[in-house]
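Researcher: Quick test of sequence recovery. Tokens follow.
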């Protein structure tokens, strides 16, 4: 006899997300010579980072993995802790409950449900943008405000939505005549939205967007992602 890879039987499509979480956790963290179905309840955060990175690269089919600053944002999210340093998180362990049982504060979904939504959106609609490093993605709205508030009018960046599963939003700075700045987040785009009109073309459409953070003209950054418009198209 030989142990197979983990299998989860589901009876409805709405169980698919939980099934994927179970398989991922079992594959990544079970011991080779374990008793069947026995798997760690808690794992080091560093091991979780490696697992999320491998999963992201495999699903999206990209060579551009997650960066240190991405892990920091993900740690703040899964541990609900915005005061710890990057080094503090490295010594922590994360539980199965934090990964896929506990609802994120103020949301209606778990960490894994949110992350899996990002995976699906990126795989379906954003692979080339991610691979070209045009999407920061894993960054908090608060930190975006800090980054953009001192930038010139029209500076923008792309981040994955915190409030919706599978959404990407554009944050941009508006600078008033008196020098004051305001950072606005455009309503997140879903995979359905981006199948109707691509992200590149939506960015071209929005006249208030000028430079991709820190200072790349948007046509230079996204020009290769624009679709040529049909003659007479509005």
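Model:
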């Amino acid at each position: 006899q030989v142990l197979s890879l983990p299998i989860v039987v589901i009876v409805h499509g709405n169980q698919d997300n939980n099934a994927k979480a179970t398989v991922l956790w079992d594959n990544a963290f079970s011991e080779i010579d374990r008793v069947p179905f026995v798997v760690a309840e808690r794992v080091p955060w560093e091991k979780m980072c490696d697992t999320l990175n491998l999963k992201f690269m495999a699903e999206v089919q990209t060579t551009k993995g997650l960066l240190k600053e991405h892990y920091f944002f993900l740690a703040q999210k899964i541990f609900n802790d915005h005061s710890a340093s990057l080094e503090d998180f490295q010594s922590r362990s994360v539980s199965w409950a934090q990964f896929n049982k506990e609802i994120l504060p103020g949301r209606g979904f778990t960490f894994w449900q949110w992350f899996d939504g990002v995976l699906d959106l990126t795989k379906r609609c954003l692979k080339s943008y991610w691979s070209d490093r045009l999407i920061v993605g894993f960054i908090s709205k608060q930190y975006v405000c800090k980054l953009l508030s001192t930038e010139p009018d029209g500076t923008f960046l792309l981040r994955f939505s915190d409030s919706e599963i599978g959404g990407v939003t554009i944050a941009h700075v508006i600078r008033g005549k008196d020098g004051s700045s305001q950072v606005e987040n455009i309503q997140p785009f879903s995979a359905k939205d981006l199948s109707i009109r691509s992200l590149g073309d939506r960015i071209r459409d929005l006249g208030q967007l000028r430079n991709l953070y820190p200072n790349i003209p948007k046509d230079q950054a996204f020009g290769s992602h624009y679709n040529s418009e049909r003659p007479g198209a509005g």
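The radius of gyration is 20 Å.
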